[in-house]
Amino acid sequence: MSSSATFSLKPDWLLLRVLRGGAELTHGWASQNDYDVRFEWGASGVTALVHDVAVVVIVDVLRFTTAVAAAVSRGAVVYPYRSRDDAARSFAASIGAVLADGDSATAPSLSPLSLLHLRDGERVVLPSPNGSTCASLAAESGATVVAACLRNAGAVADWLRGRSQPVLIVAAGERWPDDSLRPAVEDLVGAGAVIDALGERASPEGAAAARAWRGVAADTPAFLSSCSSGRALISTGRLEDVRYASQVNASRAVPVLVDGAFRLVR
């Protein structure tokens, strides 16, 4: 199209703007603005919806947000970082933190069990391409960012209740080899567990996540150990991580991102 044109359809969330030199879509239809509780996937979901919400809850069950909850339950302070590389090491050194770059239950790593050894006040930098990225993007918008998993879903819902609405629940997902988003079903049901416990008016997307959670709630350990992400961890000797992550409402820890780090707020 050679000239600028604006087509406004009612209601106003159906808006298409065609601009000179290309098309720009204003995805108002994706906003879920009619609902107090909203749900989306991954970093792109954060970017699309974060500017219309007060609180963003990141869910990365296997294993980032489960690890964050484990660490803060010990009084540790967790700095999310998007990559595990020399830049992460430099950042950890600059703030006097331990870099969680190991992969065992004895050295700090993405394994939640390894973080149960942290001491009160200890700082840890926790790299994760999924949960950390989503948390960082949400924080850049000025929203309050919370880390949720199956272990603290009820506690997070209790903390959210009565606070500023609306809230966006984000299933972080995983990555395919081509770096595209792989929707991870454990994050879907983890998000659904928070939404179900919260009991507020959820969007159709959020309601679907809550229904998915209710469908597996009766046997969460079996579900987590048989889903793709669970099988991947088990195949590399991390069965105990999967078992730990499957313990529903075992923790009252609510990690909130403050000054670049997740800290215990209750």
TrEMBL record:
Keywords in alphabetical order: Hydrolase, Magnesium
Cofactor: Mg(2+)
Annotated catalysed reactions: (2R)-O-phospho-3-sulfolactate + H2O = (2R)-3-sulfolactate + phosphate
Coiled-coil ranges per UniProt: none
Top EC class, one word: hydrolase
UniProt keyword DNA repair present: no
Enzyme Commission no: 3.1.3.71
Family: Belongs to the ComB family.
Protein name: Probable 2-phosphosulfolactate phosphatase
